[in-house]
TrEMBL record:
It comes from the Bacteria. The keyword Signal applies. The keyword Signal applies. Residues 36-128 form the Purple acid phosphatase N-terminal domain. It comes from Rhodopirellula baltica (strain DSM 10527 / NCIMB 13988 / SH1). This is Phosphohydrolase. Pfam families: Metallophos, Pur_ac_phosph_N. Residues 173-320 form the Calcineurin-like phosphoesterase domain.
Length: 405
């Protein structure tokens, strides 16, 4: 195994990212014929053994598949046919392709190449989630919709963060995926805006061709059919699901843009009940905050918060507010060390709002601020460590959640 170097710090990696550009210039290329583009890896079910490899073409084409094998192996290339269709949304014509890989080996790097008709993408790779109880990190953020320049800069920073995270022997630094809390674009029914977002998302690809899996949540600006088409959900999927990022980390995605009560609340109760005793860490993400730094509380305050507290969710990731926040631990509507911490609220490329720092749940040891940002969440056997990184590489906030006794 290639040895890792300890010569680059996290912040140096970010600063280098801000000066880079040539390695990801393909993200500027428009869709052209049946040339594969807008590549992405999506995790919505058992990421240790499954992944959806998706891409777009300008024209429909007739044959679409992914070639794949274990990276740097002599294995014979396997091929998985893709499900294809035309994106819905205005007069902008383009086509989606989703190849669903199954029976993968956990914790394994796979080479992938998208093929549409006779046109091939570059060869990329991604890594499946581990089946062992190991330390690792993920990224979380939201709201990448209305400042394309900031979005592109954040995406470049993400690429460098991922690459730098593997430059040492500390497994807890290794970034496995990006959880996106919703609001990708301004108007979810306009496919031309989704196409811009998808091309910009290519910038999260590392210089060595590593694709960072995305764990998607639906936001209030993501109304319409394209969301399910972009992320490979079935047409009638309600966009709430749970996955294990490792045997001891359960990550649940909810949909704040449909009823938070009824079927979804019943599903959440069963999900948390089944997951709590068998996982060291239990996290949830969704879009509309229940303890917001700017807006009024979302409906999840009534439907979900009692369940978060009943089953001792360790961390809740929110978006929508266009600011930075971390609440005090909350239980029964007041500060309580045994309670649930909420972070957010979206800075992946959207103008920032001024938070209302006088709200009780944002007072010290909580915090609130503004600035384009992404959260790095590090999971170890002893604690969950969170770091909020600004676009210039500044560490704006750090916190630790110990393992619940």
């Amino acid at each position: 195994m290639k040895s890792r170097k300890r010569t680059r710090s996290l912040i140096l990696g970010i600063l280098c990212c801000l000066m880079m550009g040539s390695a990801t210039a393909q993200a500027d290329a428009p869709l052209n014929g049946t040339q594969p583009a807008q590549w992405r890896v999506i995790w919505t079910a058992d990421p240790a053994t499954k992944a959806t490899i998706s891409w777009s073409t300008k024209e429909a084409g007739s044959s679409h598949s992914v070639r794949f094998r274990v990276k740097d192996s002599d294995d014979r290339l396997a091929e998985q046919l893709a499900e294809s269709g035309r994106y819905t949304g205005g007069e902008f014509e383009s086509y989606y392709h989703h190849a669903r890989l199954t029976d993968l080996q956990p914790g394994t790097a796979y080479e992938v190449q998208m093929v549409s008709d006779a046109n091939e993408s570059p060869v990329f790779y991604f890594v499946t989630a581990p089946a062992t109880d190991r330390d690792f990190s993920i990224l979380h953020g939201g709201d990448s919709r209305s400042d394309q320049d900031a979005r592109r800069r954040i995406n470049k920073m993400i690429a460098e963060l991922v690459e730098s995270s593997y430059d040492n022997d500390d497994l807890s630094d290794d970034i496995l995926a990006l959880a996106h809390g919703g609001d990708y674009i301004v108007t979810g029914k306009k496919m031309e805006l989704w196409s811009m977002w998808l091309s910009d998302h290519e910038l999260t690809t590392s210089s060595d061709g590593r694709l960072l899996p995305i764990i998607p949540a639906r936001g209030n600006h993501d109304k319409g059919k394209p969301f399910n088409e972009v992320f490979g959900f079935a047409e009638d999927d309600l966009n709430y699901y749970g996955i294990n990022l490792s045997p001891q980390v359960r990550f649940t995605t909810l949909n704040s843009e449909t009823s938070t009560a009824g079927d979804q609340a019943q599903w959440l109760k069963a999900e948390l009940k089944a997951s709590r005793d068998s996982n060291r860490w239990l996290l949830t993400q969704y879009h509309r905050p229940v303890y917001p730094a700017v807006k009024t509380p979302g409906a999840g305050l009534v439907s979900w918060v009692p369940l978060f507290e009943q089953y001792n969710v360790d961390l809740v990731c929110e978006a929508d507010g266009h600011n930075i926040k971390r609440t005090v631990p909350i239980r029964d509507g007041k500060s309580d060390e045994t309670g649930v911490v909420y972070i957010g609220e979206g800075g992946l490329g959207v103008p920032q709002r001024t938070p209302k720092t006088d709200r009780w749940f944002l007072e010290s040891p909580g915090m609130a601020d503004q600035g384009h940002h992404v959260f790095v969440l590090k999971f170890t056997k002893e604690a969950l460590h969170g770091t909020c990184l600004l676009l210039d590489g500044t560490i704006r906030d750090q916190f630790t959640r110990p393992v619940r006794k």
